[in-house]
Amino acid sequence: MNKKVFKYINKNIHKDFLMNKTIIITGGNSGIGFEVAKICCYLKMNIVLAVRDVHKGETAKRELLSLYPSSNIKIYELDVSKRQSIIDFKNNIIGDNIDINMLYLNAGVFKIPHSVTEDGYETVMATNYLGNYLLISEFSSYLSNLNHEVKIIITTSVSAFLAKLDCNDFFMEKKYDKWKIYARSKLADIHLYLYLKEKCANRNIIPFLVHPGACSTPLISKAFPKWFSRLATSFASLFFHSSEKASLCTIRLLDDRYLEPTFIGPRGLLHISGYPKETKIPSKNKIDYEKTVMFTAELLNTPLLK
Q1: Cβ neighbours of residue 201 closer than 8 Å, sequence gap 6 or more
Q2: Which sequence spans correspond to the domains of the chain?
């Protein structure tokens, strides 16, 4: 662990509060999700890696155990773009009686060619937003029956600040754009957070919103040709921060200082990099958030909260 990251954690995170708490991390085998898992192992938390590829999940587990041999790490298969996979994941978690304290919705895709999931939805929106919606919907009853508070951390992006949603063309079927669909999916996640913030006021479920800033991750690397990725990585190191540092925005929200809905991102210029800081959602991004969630409820034929 980087010395500055290590110092930040020891200064700002209450380790006693987090010890033995259980966190589910979607997409936890690489990128920021893996860095969050690494720090959670250091904090002696129980880790559930919810991964699309179990083999890669097991590889990530071995690496984590090589760093923290006494860690409690479980691997579950989950493809957030597939409804049946989400249902199977929920049944497996409940069947194994996993006591959830934090649900970190981190899995996502970025700038991929247009494609459609087996459920018939555009892949980026299905993975980055619809999957989060369905996970919360499937788990809401189970979480509500736990005798403690549960944090749900939703991941957005600064790109969402420039996006607009159109429920009449939600999946950009009229004119598809790889960048815009990603930004729209992350704006939809903001709307999901705002809806939960309002509707969960009297529940034990506490929603949080996080954006990690800009950093080089496998998600980004896959979006560009290899030659460009190498060039971009060199350039990014001058302005962006590492996945490890980016993970601190999520780790900060796990702490017991945050027991009410909060949005955290990097404190640097344009929220690109830096240590965690509470931030605000632009007013224009709050418009029609309830409409977005109601549209999704009708689309998927399932309410968000059960």
Answers
A1: none
A2: 3-213+242-300
CB of 145 within 8 A of CB of 94? Answer: no
CATH of region 3-213+242-300, choose from 3.40.630.30, 3.40.50.300, 3.40.50.720, 3.40.50.150: 3.40.50.720
Which runs of E-coded beta strand occur in the chain?
22-26, 46-51, 72-77, 102-105, 150-155, 205-210, 263-266, 276-278
The single residue listed with the structure tokens 């690494």 is: 38
- Integer Cα distance of 3 and 10 in angstroms: 11
Q: Is pTM beyond 0.70 here?
A: yes
The length of the chain, given as a count of residues: 306
Q: What is the DSSP string of 40-67?
A: HHHTT-EEEEEES-HHHHHHHHHHHHHH
CA distance 119 to 135: 15
> What's the CA gap between 225 and 300, in Å, rounded?
35
- 156 vs 135: CA distance, rounded Å: 16
Tens digits of per-residue pLDDT, 126-185?
A: 999 999 999 999 999 999 999 999 999 999 999 999 999 999 999 999 999 999 999 999
Integer Cα distance of 216 and 192 in angstroms: 26
Identify which of 298, 285, 211, 281 has the alpha carbon closest to the alpha carbon of residue 248. Answer: 211
CA-based nearest residue to 100, from 108, 115, 85, 89: 89
